[in-house]
Design goal:
1 helix, MetI-like_sf, transmembrane helix
């Protein structure tokens, strides 16, 4: 019920989008640290 026929409840819409994107952002931050660590460890001969 974020969208009505003549109105949009932007506050609720943005809150829902934030809650939906939050786990993806957290996983990205955690995995990016591991990816950089693996790349630097693999670069040393």
């Amino acid at each position: 019920m974020f969208f009505g026929e003549y109105s949009i409840n932007y506050g609720v819409l943005y809150a829902g989008l934030t809650l939906a994107a939050l786990p993806i952002v957290v996983i990205f931050i955690i995995q990016s640290k591991q990816f950089i660590t693996g790349m630097t460890a693999g670069a040393i001969k």
